[in-house]
Amino acid sequence: MKLREFLLLDEFIVSRYTIAVLPYHHSGFRYSKVIEEDGEYIVKMKPIEIIKQSCHYYGSSLKGRKDGTREIIGVTHKAPIAIEPLNEIYFFPTTSPNDPRCVWLSHFHVFKYEPMQGEKTCVYFNHEKSIYLDVSYHSFVNQLYRTAQLRTKLSERMEARERKLQYLYRMDRTKGWTLQ
Predict the structure, then answer these.
(1) How many beta carbons lie within 10 A of that of residue 166, not counting itself?
(2) Looking at residue 29, what is its pLDDT?
(3) According to the model, what pLDDT value does residue 148 have?
(4) CA-to-CA distance for 31 and 50, rounded, in angstroms?
(5) Residue 180 lies in a domain
(6) Which InterPro entries does the entry mention (predicted)?
(7) Can you give the pLDDT at residue 78?
(8) Direct distance between the N- and C-terminal alpha carbons of the chain, in angstroms, rounded to an integer
(9) What would the pLDDT profile of 27-38 be if each residue is shown by its tens digit?
(10) Which of 4, 19, 118, 124 is the most buried (most CB within 10 A)?
């Protein structure tokens, strides 16, 4: 498709409706092609810039999110990112984020995936969309599982904290305790 067939945006923030952020090259410029549930857009930003800006929008930095991933699951290379965990916005890179071929995928939207010939992987998303990736099936599955591990561990931490707060609140109300 030609650039004029897409809605062209100057900037973009990923949301729960964002499926993928892919590199898009046009006239010597590196842009991004964003796939959303309701359409596709070309954004005048590199994929890594969209991920960084999205982290800032939701109150953190990409470095902070990477540090969190390292702390929670011990991953430093091609780290999945919890851009906004309360809304389940978790993205993972298919290659090194600095690689101009890197694609960022939403873990939430991956429906199924299968190996293709030539070290490629076909990824099917909810909403009947799919893409072919220049990444091996093994590498893709590894990234998908790392992201699932991050989601699970972070969710467990948030739930444990909520249970603790609920317990303390109930103790305060039944015993007349005062929280200091």
Answers:
(1) 10
(2) 92
(3) 97
(4) 10
(5) no
(6) ComK
(7) 97
(8) 61
(9) 899 999 999 999
(10) 19
Q: Tell me how far CA of residue 71 lies from CA of 55, 56, 64, 123, 164, in angstroms.
A: 17, 20, 10, 29, 21
In a domain, 156, yes or no: yes
Range of the domain at 34: 3-175
Bridge partners of residue 139, in order along the sequence: none
Report the domain count for the chain.
1
Burial of residue 21 (CB within 10 Å: 0-12, 13-18, 19+) is buried
The 10s digit of each residue's pLDDT in 131-166 is 999 999 999 999 999 999 999 999 998 887 777 667
User: In this structure, is residue 92 part of a structural domain?
Assistant: yes
Question: What is the reported pTM?
Answer: 0.87
